[in-house]
Amino acid sequence: MDKINLISKTEIFVKSVLDGDGSGHDWWHIERVRKTALLIAKSEGADLFIVELSALLHDIDDWKLVGLKIKPNKAKQWLINCNVDPQITERVCTVIDGISFKGAMVNTDTNDPECKVVQDADRLDALGAIGIARAFNYGGYKGRALYDPSIKPEIGMTVEQYKGSTAPTINHFYEKLLLLKDRMNTETGRKMALQRHNFMVLYLEQFYREWNGERTINGNIL
Question: What is this structure's pTM?
Answer without folding.
Answer: 0.87
